[in-house]
Write a structure and sequence with these properties.
Elements (H helix, E strand, L loop, with lengths): L2 H17 L6 H16 L22 H16 L4 E5 L3 E4 L2 E4 L9
Antiparallel strand pairs: 1-2, 2-3
Amino acid sequence: MTTAQFEKLVNQIMEDAEKDGEPVTREEALEMARMEVNANKDRRYEKADGAIKEKKKRTVKKDPEKIKIISDLAEWLTSKGYDANITNDTREVTFGNFSLTLIKHRPPKK
């Protein structure tokens, strides 16, 4: 910080204090300005110890009941004349411009 900027800060502190109804002397304003400048210099940025933890890949358990339902739906749609494709064997069947998504809801809490 240059001396001109420091003087400007001192004058600003004196003006602000006067506006608040509690005027300060120049020595007090100098001390307040020094404290403010030192507070801005003492910033420390710490890094965490070690490397960043890698996220574990979540493994999804295959539900045999969902697989059976999806395959039965695809088979039924094909028998009705639709071009059914299983996009995800536990979740989705697509046919033409449509898709069916199967969702298994959790049991209600007791």
